[in-house]
Amino acid sequence: MAVLLDLLNKDARPRHPEKVHRPDQPVQRKPDWIRVKAPGSPKWAETNAIVREHKLVTVCEEAGCPNIGECWEKKHATFMIMGDTCTRACAFCNVKTGMPGALDAEEPAKIADAVAKLGLQHVVITSVDRDDLADGGAEHFAQVIRAIRARSPLTTIEVLTPDFLRKEGALEVVVAARPDVFNHNLETVPSKYLTVRPGARYFHSIRLLQRVKELDRTIFTKSGIMVGLGEERNEVLQLMDDLRSAEVDFLTIGQYLQPTRKHHPVMRFVTPDEFKSFETIAASKGFLLVSASPLTRSSHHAGEDFARLKAARVARLGA
Questions:
Q1: In the chain, what's the furthest Cα-to-Cα distance?
Q2: How far apart are CA 177 and CA 179, in angstroms?
Q3: What is the pTM assigned to this prediction?
Q4: Of 12, 18, 162, 271, which sits most exposed with the smallest number of CB within 10 A?
Q5: Which residue positions form the known binding site for [4Fe-4S] cluster?
Q6: Binning pLDDT at 50, 70 and 90, where does residue 301 land?
Q7: Where would I find the beta strands (DSSP E) of 132-198?
Q8: % the chain with pLDDT above 90
Q9: Are 116 and 153 in contact (CB under 8 A)?
């Protein structure tokens, strides 16, 4: 029996205790079109040093993002707040699961300092799920946004939040802090939620994104999914319609990559031509911006995408 240890954080406990007794899943060989640059350049090392100096957690490392070499080369790190341990146990995710520790009251200041030192023009802030907190961590998100604004007023801010399920008033707290982009990922089509994202509710997530627009129409909204989890093409197209009904501005679609043999298997590798087709169809449905490719991830090229979002809104609405 294989046991998943948290080697990333030098922890002898299982990283995914809920997955330890699951049978191993097959791991398919990656096709030629999925190739990434290995990390290790001098600029990557500089980003790594700043992250370590401030004792920060990044989703780039915790989730095993394939784009870490490219992004950290450009000093683009996505910060994961409220610890490295998630209260959910999604079948696709490599972030550690368990009972999280207390919030770090100094974290907003540390994040703001790192953003300033990296010279970020656009920053993405995400988090683990914190179902143990009364507000799901909404106030902590707001504090981080305010700290960055105070230290780097010209930096635009994108948040990638949990669903705040059963956390009355939490979304309103985050929106009131006025991030430039509010992202919440659907991750997969509704028929896969019980096996892929069992702690979440598809239509709650759709409603969350719709509510952001009701509260503040100036905030861009964004959502993303993975393909290759066994979804059908028509399900992906229906998901696009659901997001447009919630007036979501930006859709990302990327290939699911299996972190370990204990995670959900890759059912198939979607071809670049299929991704191009998804991008074309989504654009025709009215999204301001669509990014669809095997290596597309929520925060990949986020700064450049924000500039494109603004330009697209001006072209369409004149404002």
A1: 60
A2: 6
A3: 0.89
A4: 12
A5: 60, 65, 71, 86, 90, 93, 299
A6: confident
A7: 156-160, 181-183
A8: 65
A9: no
**171 and 211 in contact (C-beta within 8 Å)?**
yes
Measuring CA to CA, how many Å separate 28 from each of 79, 124, 155, 227?
30, 31, 40, 15
For the chain, where are the E strands, in sequence order?
5-6, 11-14, 79-81, 85-86, 96-97, 122-127, 156-160, 181-183, 220-227, 250-255, 289-292
Residue 219 · residue 184 · CB < 8 Å: no
4 pLDDT band, cuts 50/70/90, is very low
The residue-averaged pLDDT of 121-125 equals 93
Query: Are 246 and 206 spatial neighbours (Cβ–Cβ below 8 Å)?
Result: yes
- The secondary structure element, H or E, covering residue 51 is helix 42-53
Over residues 148-170, mean pLDDT: 97
Q: d(Cα 138, Cα 81) in Å, to the nearest integer?
A: 11
- Known binding positions: 60, 65, 71, 86, 90, 93, 299
Per-residue pLDDT at 318 exceeds 60: yes
289, 312 Cβ separation under 8 angstroms: yes
Angle at alpha carbon of residue 197, lines to 195 and 198, rounded to 5°: 70
In 3D space, the residue among 188, 132, 125 whose CA is nearest the CA of residue 159 turns out to be: 125
Q: Is the Cβ–Cβ distance between 185 and 298 less than 8 Å? A: yes
Distance CA 95, CA 109 (A): 24
Inter-residue contact 122 to 89 (CB < 8 Å):
no
Contacts of 206 (CB under 8 A, 6+ apart): 186, 242, 243, 245, 246
Q: Confirm if 275 and 251 have CB atoms less than 8 A apart.
A: no
Return all residues near 304 (Cβ < 8 A) that are at least 6 apart. Answer: none
Q: What pLDDT, on the 0 to 100 scale, is given for residue 67?
A: 59
Distance CA 50, CA 5 (A): 26
Of 82, 69, 77, give the one whose Cα is nearest residue 51.
Answer: 77
